Amino acid sequence: MRHTQRPGAGLDVALFVTCLVDMFRPSVGFAAAKLLEDAGCRVVVPEAQTCCGQPAYNSGDRADATDIARRVIEAFEGYDYVVAPSGSCGGMISHHYPALFADDPDMKARAEALASRTHELTSFLVDVLGVMPAATRCDATATYHDSCSGLRELGVKAQPRRLLAGVEGLKLVEMKGAEVCCGFGGTFCVKYPDISNAMLDDKIADIAATGADTLLAGDMGCLLNMAGKLSREGRPVKVRHVAEVIAGMADEPAIGEPSA
Predict the structure, then answer these.
(1) Which residues does the chain have with pLDDT short of 50?
(2) I need a surface site. Which of 11, 27, 104, 119 has the fewest CB within 10 A?
């Protein structure tokens, strides 16, 4: 990072890896850890972590969502901050956990304490630590998709773009409808597949219209959804999580490409 004193020095930061990163794109977790460590943070990945509970919550299963939230709270207590490379998971913990324990004052207080310390990755780097753009390189013309939860629940918009501005060789071209949902929406794509696919068609058309060779976003659900459609249509667009590019890991195979 371009600073003389690392802004995260002395902070214990727990990384909430997320299910999709763990199962489909571990390199995003490594990129997030690298960015936090480069900023001076002591990064811990609690082994007891599981899903954030959002699939159950979105499906109306409050009992399972509450049980999962309780385990997450127990696993992540005791750290200065909790950071997730996902606006979706970050939003679940910071915005919805307290309400799950409305009838349990003790757990509600613990949920509120965790919520106040939980941040999406790029927001944490920019808004909390004040990190400057990283001195990395990625020779690409990219466009950026704003994920719904990160944008609407957490206000993540300018932060990833600020960090990308420091990546040498990267040209960022804004797409029409960058803030429009890609159609994934967690369980939405399962409940309403036809609507979801129509929304995805519109998103792919907007991506193609930019002429970009690379698509970036901050949530794996969106990235997997868009990467699948781009691949099925034979469009030569590489798909990456923003953390990978900022961390200088753009040499990793793109999402949807086979590993070497």
Answers:
(1) 1-3
(2) 104
Angle at 253 between CA 118 and CA 219, to 5 degrees: 25
Judge residue 7's burial from the number of C-beta atoms within 10 Å of its C-beta, 0-12 exposed, 13-18 middle, 19 or more buried.
Answer: middle
Predicted pLDDT at 260: 52
- Integer Cα distance of 28 and 25 in angstroms: 6
**CA pseudo-torsion sign 216, 217, 222, 223:** positive
> For residue 256, what pLDDT is reported?
84
Check residue 259 and give its pLDDT.
62
The C-alpha atoms of residue 44 and residue 47 are separated, in whole angstroms, by 9
Which residues, other chains included, contact 212 with Cβ-Cβ below 8 Å and sequence gap of 6+?
Answer: 140, 141, 142, 143, 173, 175, 237
- Classify residue 242 by burial, with Cβ atoms within 10 Å: 0-12, 13-18, 19+: buried
Say which CATH topology domain 133-246 has.
Answer: Rossmann fold (3.40.50)
Cα separations in angstroms, 237 against 19, 21, 118, 182, 232 = 24, 20, 32, 16, 12
| Residue at 25: amino acid letter | R
For the beta carbon of residue 195, count every other beta carbon within 10 angstroms: 13
For the chain, give every domain's residue range: 12-127, 133-246
> With contact defined as beta carbons under 8 Å apart, do 255 and 239 qualify?
yes
